[in-house]
Specification:
The complex is a heterodimer of chains A (434) and B (187). Chain A is mostly beta strands and 434 residues long. Chain A has helices at residues 61-77, 99-107, 152-168; strands at residues 5-9, 16-20, 46-49, 54-55, 81-83, 112-121, 124-133, 138-148, 177-182, 189-194, 201-202, 210-215, 220-225, 232-237, 244-245, 252-258, 264-271, 274-281, 288-289, 297-302, 309-313, 320-324, 332-333, 340-346, 352-358, 364-369, 375-377, 383-389, 395-402, 405-412, 419-420, 427-433. Classes of the chains: A mainly beta (434), B alpha+beta (187). The A-B interface holds A 187-188, 207-209, 211-212, 226, 229-231, 251-252, 254-255, 268, 270, 272-275, 296-299, 312, 314, 319, 340, 342-343, 356, 363, 385-386, 404, 428-429 and B 34-36, 89, 124-128, 130-132, 134-135, 137-139, 142, 156-159, 162-163, 169.
């Protein structure tokens, strides 16, 4: 197997990650026993040992603790792994090619070992990572990462992404972000945070009302802004730069959603008090109306194929989810159970939808398989809403109101592994940014 | 007849105009500026007022209304808000009464322009409530139009459930939030 040097430069981050491939890599893992399907919620998790990062010299705990902690937390969060209990790790034995060493790790329950070594030089750190299959005693992944010591968590996230990619075939989430609306600074504005709730940054300072952030596919966010008194459609970059209005010529411009190629935006528009689904070119102009009922239509969601748009309509007497094609034809009803289904969102593979569902009492998050219509309710606590999918389709981010406070949570698509990401103020309308 | 320009007489006329409103409304008066409505209680109007001038209470004359600063004008409650049932934008009798009163007043001051803010209670989703608030505000505008107030004088904006007047999860509070709120924007 040949080795080659790959250099990747992560734009917009003061960290250059140099990746050195020690061993054969590819989309398909060589050992099929280690292939993990995280599409099956009940799939067995792979036990992975993640011992503390080592170093030839003295490693400050300000570097080692966040690195190891982040790596373990990420791998566990992926849903594909369980971290083998560190209390049972042998001391040393980082090279498990020897049967004796492999047995010591396996005796502690681990099937895979992630051995990491740091080399700190001034304010730079280089991390070498070797991932071992403890059954075959072969190294299955080897990489080297480098960056400033203050970005050690980012290195851990990058390694976790690579490990998840290797074992699941899907891109990891550990460098992704979530946009959301918060009133933590007074007015409702749009913010973004890392997938784990850290590193919150404010994207808008409308100081009136900015809401409904929707992720584009090319680092764009569409949203509704009251910056000029009336609710207008705006687009900005995911770092909050380059804000501009997308002129539609109509009064209400709510709940936008991008087409898969980001060239068009569907939204709930209203002329004279009758909200319908409209589409406008992302550059402004070319407005067309997709629905023509006298009922309320809102919350469009463009399908990953671009050929369908989910939306909510109360034409049956209560809000239910419908689907229509982008030409405005072929509208049909999708949800029938309950008395309020709303805020639908497509899974990245287009096979399922998540939505806010209510029969009696509070709203919950439901998941429907579009082929079978089979629906499962994923939440049971608080009043929940606005689900959107992680880019890998394995997580759902949503808002939940409990005890008078709204916060952002994530969960696995089987409803497990719920985590609260926000604490300050009220936080609603999350959108997972790729 | 005496001139109306002395401060005392002006105050008396103002008091006479707002007294019936104050009695009929035990809630805080809605705050009025469009861009920033802090969710705090507004100070109650001054209650110790001189006795009204002789004769029946009088409406302020046009020149006084039009001489008043817009933010002050909005605090005086000349225009009444319309209230709605849950998940409805149909105008109830009390809303029609309020809007008829507003129509009369607006016809007396034809240069005044207003914004109707559509508001909703916290139940239901944000996007749906934005559409519902839009529908409520437009229903109020259409009714004013039918009463002879040109639609060109009336703009609408929906805030859905995003800017509630009251934040408790009680029916009394929800009713306060289901409203078409009038804001004078030009005079």
């Amino acid at each position: 197997m040949r080795r080659f040097l790959v250099r990747r430069f992560v734009a917009a981050a003061p960290l250059a990650v140099a990746t050195f491939l020690f061993a054969q890599t590819g989309q398909t893992p060589p050992n099929q026993d280690l292939w993990i399907s995280i599409n099956k919620p009940t799939a067995r998790k792979l036990a992975i040992a993640v011992p503390e990062i080592t170093t030839a010299g003295t490693l400050r705990s300000s570097v080692s603790d966040p690195f190891t902690g982040t790596l373990r937390s990420d791998l566990e969060y992926s849903g594909a792994f369980v971290i083998a209990d560190p209390a049972h790790y042998p001391t040393g034995y980082r090279d498990p090619t020897a049967q004796d060493a492999a047995d010591r790790w396996r005796g502690g329950g681990a099937e895979v070992l992630v051995d990491t070594r740091a080399d700190v030089s001034g304010d730079r750190v280089s991390v070498e990572a070797r991932v071992w299959d403890l059954v075959s005693r072969k190294m299955i992944m080897g990489k080297r990462y480098a960056g400033g010591v203050s970005y050690v968590e980012r290195i851990a996230h990058t390694l976790a992404n690579d490990i998840v990619k290797y074992f699941t075939g899907k891109d990891g989430l550990f460098l992704s972000s979530v946009a959301f609306v918060s009133d933590r600074d007074g007015s409702k504005d749009i913010y973004a945070m890392d997938f784990d709730g850290r590193n919150v940054r404010r994207l808008t300072s409308v100081r009136s009302l900015a809401m409904s952030p929707a992720a584009g596919h090319s680092a764009k966010i569409a949203y509704t802004s009251y910056a000029r008194l009336y609710p207008q459609l705006w687009v900005m970059s995911t770092d909050g730069s380059d804000k501009h209005e997308v002129a539609t010529g109509i009064e209400l411009n709510a709940s936008p959603t991008f087409s898969p190629d980001d060239t068009q935006i569907a939204f709930a528009g209203s002329a004279k008090g009758n909200a319908d689904i409209y589409v406008v070119s992302a550059g402004g102009g070319g407005l067309r109306r997709l629905t023509t009922t006298r009922a309320i239509e809102a919350s469009p969601a463009w399908s990953p194929t671009g050929r369908q748009i989910l939306y909510t309509s109360d034409q049956s007497g209560n809000p239910q989810i419908y689907v229509v094609d982008p030409e405005g034809t072929g509208a049909r009803r999708v949800t029938f159970a309950g008395n309020w289904n709303d805020e639908a969102s497509w899974s990245p593979d287009g096979a399922r939808i998540a939505f806010a569902c209510r029969n009696e009492g509070d709203f919950n998050i439901c998941l429907m398989d579009l082929a079978t219509g089979q629906t499962v309710q994923l939440t049971s606590e608080g009043s929940n809403g606005h689900p959107t999918w992680s880019p890998d389709g394995q997580k759902i981010v949503y808002s939940s109101r409990r005890g008078g406070r709204s916060n952002i949570y994530t969960m696995d698509i089987n409803g497990q592994n719920k985590r609260q990401l926000t604490e300050s103020g009220n936080n609603i309308q999350p959108a997972w940014l790729p | 007849m005496k001139r109306h320009s002395t401060p005392l007489v002006a105050l008396a006329l103002f008091a006479a105009a707002i007294l019936p409103l104050a009695q009929g409304c035990k809630k805080k008066p809605p705050t009025t500026t469009a861009e920033a409505r802090p969710p705090v209680e507004q100070p109650a109007p001054e209650t110790r007022v001189p006795p009204p001038a002789t004769g029946a209470p009088r409406e302020p004359v046009e020149t006084e209304v039009l001489a008043t600063d817009i933010s002050e004008l909005n605090k005086k409650g000349y225009l009444k808000d319309a209230f709605y049932d849950y998940d409805q934008s149909d105008l109830r009798d009390d809303a029609r009464t309020a809007l008829a009163s507003n129509a009369e007043w607006l016809k007396r001051y034809p240069s005044i322009q207003v914004l109707i803010e559509g508001h909703c209670d916290e139940r239901g989703t944000s996007a749906y409530n934005l559409a519902l608030g839009d529908r409520r505000a437009n229903a109020a505008r259409d009714y004013l139009d039918s009463l002879g107030v040109a639609a060109s004088r009336v703009r609408t904006v929906s805030y859905g459930k995003e800017r509630p007047f009251c934040t408790e999860s009680t029916e009394d509070c929800w009713q306060q939030n289901r409203r078409g709120h009038f804001v004078i924007t030009a005079k």
